[in-house]
Amino acid sequence: xxxxxxxxxxxxxxxxxxxxxxxxxxxxxxxxxxxxxxxxxxxxxxxxxxxxxxxxxxxxxxxxxxxxxxxxxxxxxxxxxxxxxxxxxxxxxxxxxxxxxxxxxxxxxxxxxxxxxxxxxxxxxxxxxxxxxxxxxxxxxxxxxxxxxxxxxxxxxxxxxxxxxxxxxxxxxxxxxxxxxxxxxxxxxxxxxxxxxxxxxxx
Length: 203
Hints:
Number of helices: 7
Helix content: 40-55%
Distance between the termini: 42 Å
Structural class: alpha/beta
Shape: globular
Strand content: 5-15%
Largest sheet: 6 strands, mixed
Number of strands: 6
């Protein structure tokens, strides 16, 4: 799990921690990685990652990209800023998925957001796009994956939001177990086409 909030133990963490506890009940190990509150370098489109096999900026992005090889699923959490995800998290994810996207393919992904009041669905849509461009199955819940509150204490009072996190965790656990059963049964990953088509609309 990636905590994309500058606050290590804030509202986003509180939601992620509800997922951690429920996954544990389902026999699934997890960990929360906090991106921190230091400036995060954005992608500069240098494309050096193609030849280096990692991002040219050697920081937490490369650390998570390397770990991602061994992870079976991902949850990305963010606070809502101006109806969008945290800018530092977006810089982090742009570099992570561009330089290490192959480590995410065919692994379940879920996004969760926290907000005082609104902007949540726009932020969720933004985060889910990282999964859908990376061949990742998206895990859903019984409602959009969000909690509300201006503090961790407020989030703990959002009973519907916390339940949404628990249902999300159980759905993630179910999907992970199904995937593992599929592997043991010899079901291969989807066949990929050898050539990636790219159509440019302006000549």
